[in-house]
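BUG-669 | component: ligand-complex export | severity: low

The export step for 2-(butylsulfanyl)adenosine jobs runs without errors, but we want the raw record kept on the ticket for reference. Input record follows.
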Amino acid sequence: MAAPDKKTRSEYDKLKAEIELHNRRYHGEDSPSITDAEFDRLFARLIDIEKGFPELVTPDSPSQRVGATPSKKFEPVQHRIPMLSLQKVTTVEEFAEFDRRVKSGLEVEDDVEYVVEPKLDGLAVELVYENGLLVLGSTRGDGATGETITPNLKTIRNIPLKLSSKTARKYPLLEVRGEVIMRVSAFEKLNQRLEAEGIAPLANPRNGAAGSLRQKDSTVTAGRPLMFFAYGISDSSLDGVGSQSEAMKLLETEHFAINEHITTAVGVEAVEREFLRLAQIRPDLDYEIDGMVVKVDRFADQQVLGQISRAPRWAVAWKFAAELAETTIEGVEFSVGRTGAVTPVAKLKPVRVSGVTVSNASLHNEDELNRLDIHTGDRVVVRRAGDVIPEVVEVIDRKKYGKLSRILFPNTCPSCGQPIARPEGEAAHRCINVACPAQVEAGLFHFASKGGFDIDGLGDKLARQLIDNKLVSDPADLFFLSKDDLLPLDLMAEKRAHNLIEAIDRSRKADLPRIVYALGIIGVGETAARLLAEHFGRWQALVAASIEEMENIAGVGPVIARNIAEFLANDGNRKMLDKMRKGGVLFPDYKSAAASGGLSGKTFVITGTLSKPRNHFKNLILERGGKVTGSVSKATDYLLCGADAGSKRAKADKLGVEIISEEELQALL
Ligand code: IVH
């Protein structure tokens, strides 16, 4: 094949730059300057050239943004410089307190110059540019170790794949940090699409961003409307970058999207003004923010202030308080939970509160219902804080509707019609009919949830369908379902049925903590379930245990112990457990990672220069039940290898012993 001539080469380079410019305009800035058809023409020409001259294709070509072949897992990666978290304040007094600590740390009396930025509600990521090329993208993870999601991040059109050659020369290593977000409008569109396809909608834009990024198949990510806002660089000692504002300027010239509401403020009052301004414009933004991040601008000052544990002393998150909104009560429904508790739920005229449209709010219980004295048509204040279920705070305007519209607590279960009771000393009413369809449905949903059998695709809607169609009367029936049972259901396509059956099959291997949690025994959350599994190790041992033995486990206690004993003594429950076993649930013995020594039987040798003393790694291995010896032999399973390794590495190579890095050891652990 002929080599590309100079003209083609230069056309190709121009095309790449032009397409990237339009990618930014369209996906980042929302201000396209050419039509879609024109864009498609440019792109087609690029692909044409690449087909003719594959040697031209570089990792920074826009053609590389479509996603790569699915990966099995996300490789863990250590951040060279940890990604810190932030201390939080919610009032101006608390912020003033932070400001005083900063001043005393810097030993200054004059007001400090801060950079103030919206606190974006998405997913934090790091982008590593080596010699100007994007070589690695990862999630924040726990701050020290994240997950590699490079192909996924490359699909985000406003993330530069390449830096200018000037910057690449000056900073051969540049680590850029920021937030991946989904715009609210894009989120709403995506949810409409998902619902039309019968796929569970995403809870909110943040989950939308996180879920889209953590796709094994990056072509899925490529189809999701994500964007990236840069908010910093990892290293505050780069030549020529002396402050946060200078870092942002550098990033801006490199075409990173910088949030338009970032500004500087000197002193507490100015920061507070910015906070109030941000709170005011928040409802109009097309992305979610949950507060403001305030950073001491000068890097030299940041270094003086340092950090405490995992948060810097030079920055703080000033979060918005829970948000309130006014709306109208359209009615009240009574929902029955997994444990039979009946909760009044206010049906609201939909209203946006802190970025989310709310149409239901909890009224908690009868006492609360009476306290508020709720009527249909009442004008009320609702509150939403974080992920907590929204609630009605107060009634602000009541029309005179007469007695009839007053909402009263029912005497019978809204699902099964049996009488409901309010046990002595409890605030909740309960339906005590264990066969109550609403309870069975909620129990089924819980059984299949993430912390339980983790049956992907079994949401509340499907749980209801399975019960209504008499395919399932208790969770154990799930293990007897076939694809043919599912296909006649509403919105059930071949593929979905297939996936569901596969997910059920995988779940038969669920470990003991999941099984114990999934049963939905009152008070047994994920923590108690794990403690019980760790203590007993085997299902049979748990079943045979006395109340005394259970209540003596730290973190379990007498109430939970009695609930478990009652659950296990119940005939119906025993039958169901039996059915689960017949349905193929394995009830495997449980050994926690630490107790079982995940590395037991494995022999390690350590060599080369590592980031910490060898003893540190030796202890990690020993703690997990592994062995560490001094020389490589055929019996060696792994050589943990740092920089400048010599003869041991050569010997391991010769014997075919697996050579692993610190990161890989971390993954094994
Ligand atoms: S700076 C030490 N700036 O907040 C500096 N973080 O607790 C730490 N976040 O999950 C990060 N907007 O993703 C910074 N403008 C902003 C931010 C921001 C959102 C998130 C970040 C992380 C959390 C830090």
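Assignee comment: Attached the raw record above. The pocket of 2-(butylsulfanyl)adenosine is lined by residues 84-86, 117, 119-120, 124, 140, 179, 231-232, 293, 312, 315, 317 (CB under 6 Å).
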